Amino acid sequence: MRSSFALALVTVLARAVHASTVITPAGGERLAANTHLVPEGGSILHVDDSTVHVLDADDNVVKQVAVDQTTPVRPAESEASKTQSGVEPFKTGWITFASWRNTGSSPITSFTTSWNVPPVPDAEDGQTVFLFNSIEPNSGHAILQPVLQYGGSAAGGGKYWAVASWYLVGNQTFHTKPVKVSAGDKLDGIITLTSSSGSSFNYVTSFTNIASTSLKATNAMELTWSTETLEAYHIKSIKDYPAGSTVFSNINLKLANGNVPNVAWNHKNDTADGLSTKINTDGAKDAKITIKY
Ligand SMILES: *[C@@H]1O[C@H](CO)[C@@H](O)[C@H](O)[C@H]1NC(C)=O
Ligand SMILES: *[C@@H]1O[C@H](CO)[C@@H](O)[C@H](O)[C@H]1NC(C)=O
User: Fold this and answer.
1) E strand or H helix that includes residue 160
2) Tens of pLDDT, residues 153-193
3) Nearest bound ligand to CA 33?
4) Assigned fold of 86-292
5) Which of 228, 245, 271, 278 to mutate to test the pocket of ligand 2 (most atoms within 8 A of CB)?
6) Is the CB of 67 within 6 Å of ligand 1?
7) Contact yes or no for 197/71 (Cβ under 8 A)
8) 276 CA distance to ligand 2 middle (Å)
9) In the chain, domain spans
10) Phi, psi torsion values for 17, nearest 5 degrees
11) Is the pTM of this model over 0.90?
């Protein structure tokens, strides 16, 4: 009697602990209490170093959020530890990606990427897969990203593909409501600098061809580190990924001074699991990058 009660209590507690964290793109597992839905057409306004406001489309304040901006949005990479049977588990977090940092004095004003929604994965293991272009400040303490996801995340989702825009800053996470998409749909993810003044930058991201995915970050830091990324969690088999490859195309970066930056993409492969990034067409004008599963 007593032991079954204890077991039930442990189960309840385990559920409570489990329920308190959610998966976020870039940030991985984060506290559910620190993730916030932004109303359609809304924005995240940086008020000061430790406060952001969530505004609706009419600029009414709907939420005031205390933020610790010294927290990096991407957790440090953890070494995969062997399981009891001696098998290396699949990598978690940023699996394979391409990146370029703008070190020039003229800020990035526009970053576009197009890709097609891949087929649904052959296996279902409760995995979460994210595909996105993104941009971060030099500090790594924020990220703005139009994200395609398969599986569950802080924004919702399930055994289907969906898109949402995300802004993570310090220990807080903001996202739009996910919109279901289907295999083969063409996505156009765009990040735009709408205006700036001194060290204050106003950005908006969206999928240009999908309504209700627009998310603004205003009075934010300058965003410099641009990426094309595959990120994943709870992968138990290579079949938890979609089959084939994803081609990021129409990759265009523009600067405030009107120039096209001189871009050479870096990349990182997950050789152990057989996932890779290939730079097909380098540069900042109609570049093409393929992620192979
Ligand atoms: C995030 O930062 C804010 C401001 O410091 C703090 O109030 C909040 O408790 C933090 N949350 C976590 C989980 O660190
Ligand atoms: C990553 O994998 C791609 C595709 O196989 C290959 O072209 C590229 O050279 C690899 N890069 C590195 C750094 O190993």
Assistant:
1) none
2) 999 999 999 999 999 999 999 999 999 999 999 999 999 99
3) 1
4) Jelly Rolls (2.60.120)
5) 278
6) yes
7) no
8) 6
9) 86-292
10) -65, -45
11) yes
